[in-house]
Design a protein that fits this description.
Number of strands: 18
Shape: elongated
Order of helices and strands: EEEEEEEEEEEEHHHEHEHEEEEH
Structural class: alpha+beta
């Protein structure tokens, strides 16, 4: 942004006599502020309004000119202001003044008013590629819009911060002069210096248990879908599912098998999750199955839906009308190749089957009268031996 020629402008003028002195003069050449860098082991600058009478306005100090935190101390009255580098990849310095927050962003200084947009309060003009301004304007018409009691003190802080940026720029761009080596400390050419590599930081301990299960699903971006794999125990998966169900933001948890090898493990995880809930003081009352999809109601506020072999076979369906299977024994039970169990806090009609059925004829089981016995039968199909606690 270019400077407004109609506004009061201060020109940055280095002294031709002392390289540590910089004057801020107007268009007529009158000096309004003078900055002097004090030679010392630490970084220190002083800003005067009248250098001849030594009317000190503010001092800025830091361990070095490149320090990311500098302290500005105003005189008469004494007020300390912290100037702090807050940028990451961009140039940004911040400070507080009378409960207001200000930010220097390279050529512009803003008053931050979250959530409102920032207001420009100072503007500079600098050469391309350098953080060294040639002129600066303090926009009083914007500052007058806000409740700032000491506007002169704020102007001094803004200008002093800008002048410290010049020293920071000079430190980075000034050529480094290496002192001549001492004859007594110069190593001989026949004795090379061996530098040991720095010690790498220790690796963090790998996560285990429920934390490992949570980490695997966070990597996939799955928060209410629990994919059961070979890694991880049944208890860890069940505890992870129970932790999800206790979150008010999650309405259901879907427990599914990664391959056919984890089908039985899915059932074990679901049962262990219910066992943890049972230990918390809540019992499971009913379980209903319909064909290839099973629905179970867990009390009044929790429901279970089971889907297995959900992937439909490709190609046309063939119907065999030949009576060639007469007298043959029924085929042996084949476990499902995939299994997905929904444990939900709400009803999910889209997962509930439309037609009841699916019970073997030789099992006289009633869905309404003896739900625990039917659940025992279902779990026995997955070789779950320890299911008598549900009866």
């Amino acid at each position: 942004m270019s400077l407004d020629q109609n506004l009061f402008t201060l020109i940055v003028t280095p002294s031709i006599i002392d390289p540590n002195v910089i004057d801020l003069v107007d268009s007529t050449g009158q000096v309004h502020y003078r900055k002097q860098r004090v030679p010392a082991s630490i970084y220190k600058v002083e800003v005067y309004v009248d250098f001849a009478s030594e009317s000190l306005l503010v001092t800025a100090s830091a361990p070095s000119a490149t320090s990311k935190v500098k302290t500005l101390e105003l005189c008469n009255p004494t007020i300390a202001v912290e100037l702090k580098y807050t940028g990451t990849l961009s140039f940004k310095w911040s400070f507080q003044w009378e409960n207001h927050e200000f930010e220097w962003k390279r050529e512009e200084c803003y008053m931050i008013r979250k959530p409102d947009p920032p207001v420009l309060v100072a503007l500079t003009k600098e050469p391309a590629g350098r953080l060294k301004s040639s002129s600066v304007q303090v926009l009083d018409y914007n500052l007058n819009r806000f409740d700032v009691n000491d506007r002169k003190g704020l102007e001094i802080v803004i200008l002093t911060a800008l002048l410290t940026f010049h020293d920071l720029n000079d430190t980075y761009h000034s050529p480094k002069v290496n002192p001549p080596p001492s004859p007594t400390t110069t190593p001989s050419a026949s004795a090379p210096i061996l530098l040991e590599p720095p010690t790498p930081p220790p690796r963090p301990e790998p996560k285990a248990g429920v934390d490992r299960i949570a980490e695997l699903h966070a990597i996939r971006g799955e928060f209410n879908e629990v994919t059961i794999e070979a890694e991880g125990s049944v208890n860890d998966y069940a505890q992870y599912c129970w932790n999800l169900l206790q979150d008010d933001a999650i309405l259901f948890v879907m427990i599914k098998s990664h391959t056919s090898l984890e089908v039985q493990k899915v059932v074990q995880v679901a049962e262990e999750t219910k066992r943890i809930r049972h230990k918390a003081g809540i019992c499971f009352l009913s379980f209903h199955v319909r064909s290839s999809t099973a629905f179970a109601g867990l009390e009044d506020d929790l429901h279970q839906y089971v889907i297995y072999d959900a992937e439909a076979k490709k190609g046309p369906k063939r119907i065999n009308l030949d009576d060639t299977d007469k007298g043959k024994k029924p085929a042996a039970y084949v476990p499902p190749s995939s299994l997905c169990i929904h444990i939900s806090k709400i009803l999910m009609p889209e997962l509930q089957p439309l037609k009841p059925g699916g019970l073997p004829n030789d099992k006289e089981l009633s869905l309404k009268k003896n739900d625990g016995l039917y659940l025992y039968y279902i779990l026995s199909q997955f070789n779950i031996s320890d299911c008598t606690h549900l009866l």
